[in-house]
Amino acid sequence: MNTSAPTPNTVHSEKTCVTSNGWVVLTVHLIVAIAGGCIEANARHVPDPIIWFGFLLLLLTVFLLPGYFVNRPNQATVLSLGGAYVGTSRQPGLNWTNPFRNKAHISLRALNLNGDKLKVNDLRGSPIEIAAVVVWRVVDTAQALFDVDDYVRYVAVQSESAIRHVASSYAYDDGEADEMTLRGGGNAVSAALHVELQERMHKAGVLVEEARIAHLAYAPEIAQAMLRRQQAEAVIAARQKIVTGAVSMVEMALRQLEEKHVVVLDDERKAAMVSNLLVVLCGESQVHPVVNAGTLYT
User: How far is it, in rounded angstroms, from Cα 162 to Cα 193?
Assistant: First the structure.
């Protein structure tokens, strides 16, 4: 039984391949083709060796044709010969190289990946929906073409994996004090996603320029329950502020009445006043005043 460790995959690195200016080669190509055509056209008047020379010139023009290739702006061509990587040409325009070299064009433009909505569990186990937009581009053509099988699909799969990992690392909302959440994290969560993506994409020679969360919501099965909880929490928070404000106003009213000697109230009258003011200030509906024709003690 063979117990030797498998050979690790070779990591390729882009190197520049010098190619010829296609227009210069094309000019020479046309001159050779015209010369060969003229010789063959006058075959009756020239010796046989010259005829064969003209035939070889025409054959040479056909042989040179596969060597031409065009690089558009922000496009590179990866060249290989016999299965071995030769280099990458980023020279825009018409180029010419060894006709036996294989050519693979790769776009260097920035590309957008608009991820699908993913259902994952956040840090507290609540099911949520999340999606992200990733802006990326190829920076190392050799790694993109030779170190992964399909770099476009690799980016899509690794992006989904990174988004799932980041989503499960934070709570959706209602974190503890100073705890980062998906909903409140904003740029910090996007930065964490960017770092996670770049670590995964480096192997494919891809640079992640930007990563943003495009969709974030509770999963449909718990969305209504979480909405009711948020509404209840909002009501409680509002009530707390109302009560705090009402108590402050009652305290201020009693203090100013005593300081200005407007009226002297005993404990029972203060209690009645506090009760009435709290009802007025904390009530949900409009309070209608009631005129007391008697006294507090009758």
Answer: 7
